[in-house]
Amino acid sequence: MSERRTITKALTTVAYRGWHWDKLAEALAPAAVVRADHGDIPRVKEAIADADVAILGGDISEEVLAAAKQVKWIHADHAGVNNSAHPELFQRGILLTASAGRSAPVLAEHIFFLMLSLVYDSRTLERQQQGHIWHNLYRDRRGLYTKTLGIIGLGHTGKALAVRAKAFGMRVLGYNRTVIDQPEGVDKACYADKGQTIDELLRESDIVVLTVRLSDQTYRLIDERAFGLMKPTAYLVNMARGAVVDEKALYTALVTKRIAMAASDVFETEPLPPDSPLWDLPNFVITPHCTPEVPDLTANCLEIITDNIARYREGRTLRNLLDARDAYTKGGK
Question: Which of the residues are catalytic?
Fold first, then answer.
Protein backbone atom coordinates (compact mmCIF):
# COMPACT_ATOMS: atom_id res chain seq x y z
CA MET A 1 0.00 0.00 0.00
CA SER A 2 1.35 3.42 -0.93
CA GLU A 3 0.84 6.73 0.86
CA ARG A 4 -2.73 7.74 1.73
CA ARG A 5 -4.27 10.45 -0.44
CA THR A 6 -6.83 13.15 0.26
CA ILE A 7 -9.67 14.52 -1.85
CA THR A 8 -10.22 18.22 -1.25
CA LYS A 9 -12.35 18.95 -4.30
CA ALA A 10 -14.12 16.63 -6.71
CA LEU A 11 -15.82 17.42 -10.01
CA THR A 12 -18.69 15.16 -11.08
CA THR A 13 -20.49 15.18 -14.41
CA VAL A 14 -22.38 11.91 -13.96
CA ALA A 15 -26.14 12.32 -14.28
CA TYR A 16 -26.95 10.45 -11.08
CA ARG A 17 -30.19 11.13 -9.21
CA GLY A 18 -31.88 9.97 -6.02
CA TRP A 19 -30.11 7.38 -3.90
CA HIS A 20 -27.45 6.88 -6.56
CA TRP A 21 -26.35 10.50 -6.13
CA ASP A 22 -26.71 10.38 -2.34
CA LYS A 23 -24.38 7.40 -2.14
CA LEU A 24 -21.78 9.02 -4.39
CA ALA A 25 -21.88 12.27 -2.40
CA GLU A 26 -21.54 10.32 0.83
CA ALA A 27 -18.50 8.47 -0.49
CA LEU A 28 -16.82 11.73 -1.56
CA ALA A 29 -17.50 13.56 1.74
CA PRO A 30 -16.01 15.63 3.26
CA ALA A 31 -14.59 16.85 -0.06
CA ALA A 32 -16.18 19.82 -1.77
CA VAL A 33 -18.20 18.42 -4.68
CA VAL A 34 -19.01 20.39 -7.81
CA ARG A 35 -21.69 19.07 -10.18
CA ALA A 36 -21.69 20.06 -13.83
CA ASP A 37 -23.36 18.96 -17.03
CA HIS A 38 -20.85 16.89 -19.01
CA GLY A 39 -21.61 18.85 -22.17
CA ASP A 40 -21.09 22.26 -20.55
CA ILE A 41 -17.43 22.53 -21.47
CA PRO A 42 -16.77 26.04 -20.06
CA ARG A 43 -18.26 25.02 -16.70
CA VAL A 44 -16.38 21.71 -16.68
CA LYS A 45 -13.07 23.44 -17.47
CA GLU A 46 -13.65 25.97 -14.71
CA ALA A 47 -14.51 23.31 -12.13
CA ILE A 48 -11.72 20.89 -13.00
CA ALA A 49 -9.02 23.56 -12.82
CA ASP A 50 -8.41 23.02 -9.09
CA ALA A 51 -10.06 19.61 -8.58
CA ASP A 52 -8.15 16.64 -7.20
CA VAL A 53 -10.58 14.09 -8.63
CA ALA A 54 -12.97 14.09 -11.60
CA ILE A 55 -15.77 11.54 -11.96
CA LEU A 56 -17.06 12.06 -15.47
CA GLY A 57 -20.18 10.97 -17.29
CA GLY A 58 -18.15 10.52 -20.48
CA ASP A 59 -14.62 10.83 -21.81
CA ILE A 60 -12.21 13.65 -21.02
CA SER A 61 -11.20 15.68 -24.04
CA GLU A 62 -7.71 17.07 -24.57
CA GLU A 63 -9.20 20.56 -24.09
CA VAL A 64 -10.58 19.72 -20.64
CA LEU A 65 -7.43 17.79 -19.68
CA ALA A 66 -5.34 20.88 -20.43
CA ALA A 67 -7.48 22.84 -17.96
CA ALA A 68 -7.05 20.21 -15.22
CA LYS A 69 -4.03 21.71 -13.53
CA GLN A 70 -3.91 19.54 -10.41
CA VAL A 71 -6.20 16.59 -11.03
CA LYS A 72 -4.72 13.29 -9.82
CA TRP A 73 -7.45 10.79 -10.68
CA ILE A 74 -10.05 10.75 -13.47
CA HIS A 75 -12.83 8.20 -13.68
CA ALA A 76 -14.76 7.91 -16.96
CA ASP A 77 -18.09 6.29 -16.16
CA HIS A 78 -18.35 3.84 -19.03
CA ALA A 79 -16.45 0.78 -20.23
CA GLY A 80 -14.33 1.52 -23.31
CA VAL A 81 -12.37 4.66 -22.47
CA ASN A 82 -9.92 4.75 -25.37
CA ASN A 83 -11.03 8.33 -26.11
CA SER A 84 -9.87 9.33 -22.63
CA ALA A 85 -6.51 7.56 -22.89
CA HIS A 86 -4.45 10.56 -24.00
CA PRO A 87 -0.66 10.06 -23.78
CA GLU A 88 -0.36 13.36 -21.88
CA LEU A 89 -2.59 11.99 -19.13
CA PHE A 90 -0.21 9.11 -18.44
CA GLN A 91 2.86 11.34 -18.84
CA ARG A 92 1.49 13.57 -16.07
CA GLY A 93 0.97 10.58 -13.79
CA ILE A 94 -2.80 11.02 -13.65
CA LEU A 95 -4.70 7.89 -12.69
CA LEU A 96 -7.39 6.87 -15.22
CA THR A 97 -10.10 4.35 -14.42
CA ALA A 98 -13.33 3.17 -16.04
CA SER A 99 -16.56 1.39 -15.19
CA ALA A 100 -15.57 -1.73 -17.10
CA GLY A 101 -17.42 -4.83 -15.96
CA ARG A 102 -20.67 -3.05 -15.22
CA SER A 103 -22.47 -4.96 -17.99
CA ALA A 104 -20.26 -8.05 -18.39
CA PRO A 105 -23.03 -10.66 -17.97
CA VAL A 106 -25.27 -9.21 -20.69
CA LEU A 107 -22.34 -8.45 -22.98
CA ALA A 108 -21.44 -12.14 -22.74
CA GLU A 109 -25.08 -12.97 -23.55
CA HIS A 110 -24.92 -10.64 -26.55
CA ILE A 111 -21.84 -12.46 -27.80
CA PHE A 112 -23.70 -15.75 -27.52
CA PHE A 113 -26.60 -14.26 -29.46
CA LEU A 114 -24.17 -13.35 -32.24
CA MET A 115 -22.37 -16.70 -32.16
CA LEU A 116 -25.64 -18.60 -32.32
CA SER A 117 -26.87 -16.31 -35.10
CA LEU A 118 -23.81 -17.33 -37.11
CA VAL A 119 -23.88 -21.03 -36.29
CA TYR A 120 -27.62 -21.30 -36.97
CA ASP A 121 -27.41 -18.90 -39.93
CA SER A 122 -30.21 -16.63 -38.79
CA ARG A 123 -29.95 -14.53 -41.96
CA THR A 124 -30.86 -17.51 -44.16
CA LEU A 125 -33.57 -18.65 -41.75
CA GLU A 126 -35.22 -15.23 -42.01
CA ARG A 127 -35.11 -15.34 -45.79
CA GLN A 128 -36.58 -18.85 -45.82
CA GLN A 129 -39.42 -17.80 -43.53
CA GLN A 130 -40.20 -14.76 -45.66
CA GLY A 131 -40.21 -16.97 -48.75
CA HIS A 132 -42.26 -19.74 -47.11
CA ILE A 133 -39.39 -22.15 -47.80
CA TRP A 134 -39.06 -25.38 -45.79
CA HIS A 135 -35.43 -26.44 -46.23
CA ASN A 136 -32.88 -28.10 -43.94
CA LEU A 137 -29.84 -25.83 -44.07
CA TYR A 138 -27.95 -27.62 -41.29
CA ARG A 139 -26.80 -30.81 -43.05
CA ASP A 140 -23.20 -29.64 -43.10
CA ARG A 141 -23.29 -27.55 -39.92
CA ARG A 142 -22.39 -28.32 -36.33
CA GLY A 143 -23.52 -26.55 -33.17
CA LEU A 144 -21.35 -24.79 -30.61
CA TYR A 145 -20.81 -28.03 -28.68
CA THR A 146 -17.11 -29.11 -28.87
CA LYS A 147 -16.13 -26.09 -30.99
CA THR A 148 -13.02 -24.16 -29.99
CA LEU A 149 -13.67 -20.59 -28.85
CA GLY A 150 -10.79 -18.12 -28.85
CA ILE A 151 -11.25 -15.07 -26.63
CA ILE A 152 -8.88 -12.15 -27.23
CA GLY A 153 -9.09 -10.04 -24.07
CA LEU A 154 -9.68 -11.76 -20.74
CA GLY A 155 -11.21 -8.81 -18.94
CA HIS A 156 -14.65 -8.78 -17.31
CA THR A 157 -16.56 -9.68 -20.46
CA GLY A 158 -14.02 -12.21 -21.66
CA LYS A 159 -14.12 -14.03 -18.33
CA ALA A 160 -17.93 -14.02 -18.25
CA LEU A 161 -17.95 -15.42 -21.79
CA ALA A 162 -15.56 -18.25 -20.89
CA VAL A 163 -17.79 -19.45 -18.05
CA ARG A 164 -20.83 -19.51 -20.32
CA ALA A 165 -18.91 -21.23 -23.12
CA LYS A 166 -18.12 -24.13 -20.79
CA ALA A 167 -21.85 -24.57 -20.18
CA PHE A 168 -22.15 -25.08 -23.96
CA GLY A 169 -19.40 -27.71 -23.92
CA MET A 170 -16.86 -25.61 -25.79
CA ARG A 171 -13.07 -25.70 -25.63
CA VAL A 172 -11.86 -22.24 -24.64
CA LEU A 173 -8.59 -20.53 -25.52
CA GLY A 174 -7.74 -17.11 -24.14
CA TYR A 175 -5.28 -14.32 -24.86
CA ASN A 176 -4.54 -11.35 -22.64
CA ARG A 177 -1.90 -8.66 -22.41
CA THR A 178 -1.10 -9.08 -18.73
CA VAL A 179 -0.67 -12.36 -16.92
CA ILE A 180 -3.62 -13.25 -14.70
CA ASP A 181 -4.66 -16.26 -12.66
CA GLN A 182 -6.12 -18.93 -14.95
CA PRO A 183 -9.69 -17.69 -15.46
CA GLU A 184 -12.57 -20.05 -14.84
CA GLY A 185 -13.58 -21.86 -18.00
CA VAL A 186 -10.37 -21.14 -19.94
CA ASP A 187 -8.55 -24.31 -20.99
CA LYS A 188 -5.40 -22.58 -22.20
CA ALA A 189 -4.30 -18.94 -21.95
CA CYS A 190 -1.47 -17.03 -23.63
CA TYR A 191 -0.09 -13.64 -22.62
CA ALA A 192 1.64 -10.78 -24.41
CA ASP A 193 3.74 -10.11 -21.30
CA LYS A 194 5.21 -13.60 -21.77
CA GLY A 195 6.14 -12.82 -25.35
CA GLN A 196 3.27 -14.87 -26.74
CA THR A 197 1.09 -13.85 -29.67
CA ILE A 198 -2.48 -14.41 -30.84
CA ASP A 199 -1.33 -16.59 -33.75
CA GLU A 200 -1.94 -20.00 -32.17
CA LEU A 201 -5.38 -18.91 -30.98
CA LEU A 202 -6.28 -17.71 -34.47
CA ARG A 203 -5.16 -20.97 -36.08
CA GLU A 204 -7.01 -23.24 -33.65
CA SER A 205 -10.26 -21.39 -33.03
CA ASP A 206 -13.56 -22.12 -34.73
CA ILE A 207 -14.89 -18.82 -33.36
CA VAL A 208 -12.70 -15.83 -32.48
CA VAL A 209 -14.26 -13.26 -30.15
CA LEU A 210 -12.76 -9.81 -29.52
CA THR A 211 -13.28 -8.33 -26.06
CA VAL A 212 -9.95 -6.51 -25.86
CA ARG A 213 -9.44 -2.84 -24.97
CA LEU A 214 -8.76 -0.50 -27.90
CA SER A 215 -5.34 1.13 -27.71
CA ASP A 216 -2.51 1.94 -30.09
CA GLN A 217 -1.29 -1.63 -29.46
CA THR A 218 -4.60 -3.23 -30.47
CA TYR A 219 -5.55 -0.85 -33.29
CA ARG A 220 -6.42 -3.03 -36.30
CA LEU A 221 -5.09 -6.06 -34.46
CA ILE A 222 -7.24 -8.22 -36.74
CA ASP A 223 -5.93 -7.43 -40.19
CA GLU A 224 -5.20 -9.25 -43.44
CA ARG A 225 -2.41 -11.25 -41.82
CA ALA A 226 -4.67 -12.32 -38.95
CA PHE A 227 -7.45 -13.40 -41.31
CA GLY A 228 -4.85 -15.41 -43.21
CA LEU A 229 -4.15 -17.45 -40.07
CA MET A 230 -7.79 -18.27 -39.35
CA LYS A 231 -9.60 -21.37 -40.55
CA PRO A 232 -11.70 -20.83 -43.70
CA THR A 233 -14.62 -22.22 -41.66
CA ALA A 234 -14.01 -19.80 -38.77
CA TYR A 235 -16.30 -17.06 -37.46
CA LEU A 236 -15.25 -13.68 -36.03
CA VAL A 237 -17.28 -11.75 -33.44
CA ASN A 238 -16.26 -8.21 -32.46
CA MET A 239 -17.59 -6.88 -29.14
CA ALA A 240 -14.52 -4.74 -28.43
CA ARG A 241 -14.24 -1.57 -30.49
CA GLY A 242 -14.56 -1.16 -34.24
CA ALA A 243 -10.97 -0.08 -34.81
CA VAL A 244 -9.63 -3.35 -33.38
CA VAL A 245 -10.52 -4.78 -36.81
CA ASP A 246 -9.29 -3.56 -40.19
CA GLU A 247 -12.73 -3.23 -41.82
CA LYS A 248 -11.39 -3.34 -45.38
CA ALA A 249 -9.58 -6.59 -44.60
CA LEU A 250 -12.76 -7.91 -42.94
CA TYR A 251 -14.84 -7.13 -46.02
CA THR A 252 -12.32 -8.87 -48.27
CA ALA A 253 -12.10 -11.90 -45.97
CA LEU A 254 -15.90 -12.30 -46.03
CA VAL A 255 -16.33 -11.72 -49.77
CA THR A 256 -13.54 -14.14 -50.71
CA LYS A 257 -14.67 -16.64 -48.06
CA ARG A 258 -11.28 -16.46 -46.39
CA ILE A 259 -13.40 -16.85 -43.24
CA ALA A 260 -16.93 -18.18 -43.24
CA MET A 261 -18.91 -15.54 -41.34
CA ALA A 262 -18.60 -12.64 -38.93
CA ALA A 263 -20.66 -10.47 -36.62
CA SER A 264 -20.01 -7.12 -35.03
CA ASP A 265 -21.66 -4.74 -32.59
CA VAL A 266 -19.02 -2.03 -33.10
CA PHE A 267 -17.54 -0.15 -36.04
CA GLU A 268 -14.77 2.35 -36.66
CA THR A 269 -17.33 4.94 -37.76
CA GLU A 270 -20.60 4.93 -35.83
CA PRO A 271 -23.33 4.95 -36.91
CA LEU A 272 -22.12 2.66 -39.68
CA PRO A 273 -22.49 4.80 -42.85
CA PRO A 274 -25.45 3.81 -45.06
CA ASP A 275 -23.09 3.29 -48.01
CA SER A 276 -20.79 0.89 -46.16
CA PRO A 277 -20.49 -2.36 -48.14
CA LEU A 278 -20.62 -4.28 -44.86
CA TRP A 279 -24.40 -3.78 -44.67
CA ASP A 280 -25.07 -5.99 -47.68
CA LEU A 281 -22.86 -8.98 -46.92
CA PRO A 282 -24.97 -12.13 -46.56
CA ASN A 283 -22.44 -13.71 -44.19
CA PHE A 284 -22.24 -10.77 -41.78
CA VAL A 285 -24.51 -9.99 -38.80
CA ILE A 286 -24.74 -6.43 -37.46
CA THR A 287 -26.03 -5.03 -34.17
CA PRO A 288 -25.88 -1.22 -33.75
CA HIS A 289 -23.63 -0.93 -30.67
CA CYS A 290 -26.40 -1.56 -28.18
CA THR A 291 -27.03 -4.27 -25.59
CA PRO A 292 -29.90 -4.88 -23.15
CA GLU A 293 -29.02 -3.47 -19.74
CA VAL A 294 -28.35 -5.29 -16.51
CA PRO A 295 -31.04 -4.71 -13.81
CA ASP A 296 -29.34 -1.59 -12.34
CA LEU A 297 -26.49 -0.39 -14.50
CA THR A 298 -25.96 2.78 -12.46
CA ALA A 299 -25.69 0.79 -9.23
CA ASN A 300 -23.00 -1.38 -10.82
CA CYS A 301 -21.08 1.74 -11.87
CA LEU A 302 -21.54 3.26 -8.45
CA GLU A 303 -20.14 0.19 -6.72
CA ILE A 304 -16.95 0.47 -8.79
CA ILE A 305 -16.65 4.22 -8.18
CA THR A 306 -17.26 4.15 -4.43
CA ASP A 307 -14.83 1.27 -4.01
CA ASN A 308 -12.24 3.22 -5.97
CA ILE A 309 -12.80 6.32 -3.84
CA ALA A 310 -11.92 4.25 -0.78
CA ARG A 311 -8.96 2.67 -2.56
CA TYR A 312 -7.72 6.08 -3.71
CA ARG A 313 -7.78 7.52 -0.19
CA GLU A 314 -6.10 4.44 1.24
CA GLY A 315 -3.36 4.44 -1.39
CA ARG A 316 -4.39 1.07 -2.82
CA THR A 317 -4.45 0.05 -6.49
CA LEU A 318 -7.61 1.22 -8.22
CA ARG A 319 -9.97 -1.11 -10.08
CA ASN A 320 -9.99 -0.87 -13.88
CA LEU A 321 -6.81 1.19 -13.84
CA LEU A 322 -5.29 1.96 -17.24
CA ASP A 323 -1.60 2.56 -17.86
CA ALA A 324 0.61 4.07 -20.56
CA ARG A 325 0.25 0.96 -22.74
CA ASP A 326 -3.44 1.82 -23.08
CA ALA A 327 -2.74 5.18 -24.71
CA TYR A 328 -4.76 5.72 -27.89
CA THR A 329 -3.82 8.21 -30.60
CA LYS A 330 -5.00 6.52 -33.79
CA GLY A 331 -8.49 7.99 -34.04
CA GLY A 332 -11.59 5.94 -34.76
CA LYS A 333 -13.68 4.09 -32.20
Answer: 241, 270, 289
